[in-house]
Amino acid sequence: MRRLWLIFAQAVTISVAALFVLNTLKPEWLRDAAPASVVAILQAPEENGGDTAAAPGSYASAAQRSMPAVVHVYTSKAVQNPRHPLLDDPIFRHFFGDRQGNGNNDSQRSAGLGSGVIVSPDGFILTNNHVIDAADEIEVALNDGRKFPARMVGKDPETDLAVLRIQTDAQLPAITFAGAEGLKVGDVVLAIGNPFGVGQTVTMGIVSALGRTHLGINTFENYIQTDAAINPGNSGGALVDARGNLVGINTAIYSRSGGSLGIGFAIPVSLARNVLEQIVTTGMVTRGWVGVEIQEITPDMAESFGLGSTEGALIAGVLRGSPAEKAGIKPGDVLVAVDEKTVADPKSMLELVAALPPGHSAHFRIRRQNNELDLQVEVGRRPPPQQLSNK
């Protein structure tokens, strides 16, 4: 028995030694004898330039494709220091003199940070309006560390979007836009930005909901809701799909602590593209306007007005000299359709009118005291938000 064991051990030793010699001196003999599938796996890294395939469930390729197009946006502005009340007291000024011109600095610099997305190789960058609002200096840092001063091309406070531009001779890595109708609830998305200024970060989640409105964030709302972690500094960054295509601009979070609670909101790419094209072309966003104050119809109001349903938008007020007044629209009317498109609620009415070009003669169908009337309204240009708030 011992002799058989010795013979077996010697045979194994000789076989191992022979394999070692062949692998060292003639490795092609072993490769030729191996199955074709094994040869393909062994040769794949060389044929692919040394890169290995992404592990199952990995989104590394999507991140690598989109990360170079996401930038850090640094802003600063002068902030006036609060003035001590005693400086305005006549008795104090009598004894201590007027200290307004004593050379003290009455202002200081306030810094902010956010993110942005390069949307064209020649330097156009899409970000949030609240990231750059009131800033007098804007600097953009690319993913590779290069920094450039940026100028604002235009902004749209009513969607919280703004367009910046940087000047460079080099071609910049621009992001690819996803299709407008391709996103679905449950799709995997990645949020890319600069949270808390720690540096570029990628977080993963899913699309929790689409078409979120009535949040009170902006005038025009149609948000993507996601549970991908979004924190301060992510604003203006990219929300991309599993292929690295841009599906939204990260904008806001719902939070009681200031950190991510898994409820984040992004502006969909369809809205962002429309605003981007208008700002790049004309420097501003043009929307239709008729000059009415609208109100949602509650069940109690529908009953008191003798309406059959709560659909439509109640005209609560009409601005003097506005297109609506010229067309004969009165307070108490219920708008039910614009150019044959049904008005479901005040939000849909606002969007339908905003989409109309100024100068267009729109067909408004209203309900007045149980009668339906058709009126032609010549659409005007929507004034800036500050003018609307002062009316």
From TrEMBL:
The lineage of its organism: Bacteria, Pseudomonadati, Pseudomonadota, Betaproteobacteria, Rhodocyclales. One of its GO terms (biological process) is proteolysis. It comes from Azoarcus indigens. It holds the Pfam family Trypsin_2. This is Serine protease DegS/serine protease DegQ. Belongs to the peptidase S1C family. CDD domains: cpPDZ1_DegP-like. Transmembrane segments: none annotated. Keywords: Hydrolase, Protease, Repeat, Serine protease, Signal.
